[in-house]
Amino acid sequence: MSATVPLPTRRDETWRYSDLKALEPHWPLPEAEKITIPAGAGWDEVIILEGGADETIVRRIDLTLGWESIGNVHILNIGGGYSRFELTVTMDEEAEFNLGAAQIGGGSQNLEIVTNVKHDMPDGQSHQVVRSVLAGKATGTFLGKIDVARNAQKTDAEQSIKAMLLDRTATANAKPELEIFADDVKCAHGATVGELDKQALFYMASRGLPPAEARKLMLQAFIGDAFVTLEDDEKRAMIEEKALAALEKIS
Amino acid sequence: MLKIENLHANVGDTEILKGLSLELNAGEIHAIMGPNGAGKSTLSYALGGRPGYEITSGSVNFDGEDLLELDPHERAAAGIFLGFQYPVEIPGVSNLQFLRESLNSQRKSRGEEPLSGAEFIKLAKEKSALLKMDMDMLKRAVNVGFSGGEKKRNEMVQMGIIDPKLAILDETDSGLDIDALRIVGSGINAIMRQPDKAVLLITHYQRLLDEVKPDYVHVLADGRIVKTGGPELALQLEEEGYEAVAA
Is any Cβ of chain A less than 8 angstroms from the Cβ of B115? Predict the structure, then answer.
């Protein structure tokens, strides 16, 4: 059936910033992976998207979180040339979803993370932290849609999206999107795009830290926001090391 | 140790330093006082090499080296410490990590062995105790959530750890209450009052100079040193004001 679905165009909101040319040879995409977490259970997933500059990577997950279950997803997206992660989360009562995601790109990479968190039932909470560092002519996109259904009262949905541009030629797209039909909910979201703080760089230099080291410390801290919630020390060390290597490659 | 000759510096298109000359020898503490807008902070940033502060003429010699040829981090490694009027917050980077990497970068560029983690912690503990700062604050992100006084005290802990030859302290006394001023003052004395070190204290007020006794006091007005004297000059300034003394 998916064979009849036409290739998306720029008019499709969730493909607006995508590299459609890179996508075309892979279209139609296989069905999204379906993962269902039963009531009261927990699921921790660490996902790393990486590949050569000429590779296209698309990974799609359709996650259903049962009553009182917890889903923790940590993603590091460092390419291929075009690399997209799509995640749909459907949440039952009192379910909790945590996303910590980082994208690091340079050259002409196009990296994107697209999430749709559906609070269908009451008392759910979702927390999403996304950090992007982009250099060269890279594009980094985060589209985060949150749906809160009419009966999903007491939902607590939070999004923090930040991007750092190392060069003026890089592009960051950040789009939080909230559709709320319940009236007693907490939905906080913030999106910023910035550059490295020049005052901080001079402050660090004045203590003897060479510019490259100072940049590295600041970027490491910036990306680190995405992984503080990763409780498995070994996995966190692994993902931070990969992130650091990717940062060194682009800066 | 430091010889500034006829220094002219611009910020943007505006000339702020207009032929400033000053010489500091090892073992000396100099205070620079002056009205707002005289160029005090510009002098400290120009010596630190902050981007945007353009030296248009003049020279600065530090221990026989042309300071103006060095990048900011190289000036630090050469032995210059800048105490900031407004210390900068660095979210997510702990004081300990920041200072250890800074110190070891300096040591590396001087051809010295890096300090091990244990050696560094010992040093950091000693210096934070000297400034009566809780060691836990060093585990927190640099200056994030610190009060104005805590930031200034943290500057002095950093100075103690880095152990520079020359400290240029830009209004380190502002934002300090009387007790904190005393602690910071005795910290400066303990760390920097040495025969092989020198201090350039930039301040508005006499109060800090009661704690850290200067050997020389200079009045900076309109981008130049207009008067130099001993500690009594600071007292005279406090009584009569800049305008009367500098005229």
Answer: no
Residue A104 included in any domain: yes
Bridge partner residues of B130 (DSSP): none
d(Cα B219, Cα B40) in Å, to the nearest integer? 10
Number of domains in chain B: 1
Examine residue B46 and state whether it is found in any structural domain, yes or no. no
With respect to residue A238, please indicate whether it lies within any of the assigned structural domains.
no
A–B interface: beta-carbon pairs under 8 A = 78
pLDDT digits (tens, 9 = 90+) for B100-109: 999 999 999 9
Our measurement of the distance from residue A88's CA atom to the centroid of its chain's CA atoms, rounded to an integer in Å, reads 12
Q: Is the pLDDT of residue A83 over 80?
A: yes
Query: Which residues in A lie closer than 8 A to residue B92 (C-beta atoms)?
Result: 218, 220-222, 224-225
Provide, as residue numbers in chain B, all residues whose Cβ is less than 8 Å from the Cβ of A220: 92-93
- In 3D space, the residue among A15, A59, A2 whose CA is nearest the CA of residue A33 turns out to be A59
Q: Note whether residue A205 is domain-resident.
A: no
In chain B, whose CA is at the least distance from the CA of A218?
B93
Which residues on B lie below 8 Å from A222 (Cβ)?
92
A52, A80 contact by CB (below 8 A) = yes
Q: Is the pLDDT score of A36 beyond 80?
A: yes
Beta-carbon neighbour count of residue A142 at 10 Å?
Answer: 28
Contact B5, B177 (CB under 8 A): no
pLDDT grade for B202, boundaries at 50, 70 and 90: very high
CB A168 within 8 A of CB A137: no
Distance (Å, whole) CA B54 – CA B167: 21
Domain ranges, residue B183: 2-41+51-246
The 10s digit of each residue's pLDDT in B23-52 is: 999 999 999 999 888 999 999 999 999 999
Select from B36, B80, B44 the least CA-distant residue to B62. B80
How many domains in chain A? Answer: 1
Residue of chain B with shortest Cα separation from A222: B92
> pLDDT-based confidence at A3, cuts 50/70/90?
low
Interface of B with A in 181-240 (CB under 8 A): none
Domain presence at residue B95: yes
In angstroms, the separation between the Cα of residue A221 and the nearest Cα of chain B is: 5
Contact A206 B72 (CB under 8 A): yes
Query: Could you give the percent of chain A with pLDDT greater than 70?
Result: 99
Task: Quote the domain boundaries for residue A93.
Answer: 2-196
For chain B, the average pLDDT equals 94
Is B21 within the bounds of a domain? yes
CATH number of the domain encompassing residue B194: 3.40.50.300
List pLDDT tens digits, range A127-158.
999 999 999 999 999 999 999 999 999 999 99
Residue A207 included in any domain? no
Whether B214 is covered by a domain: the verdict is yes
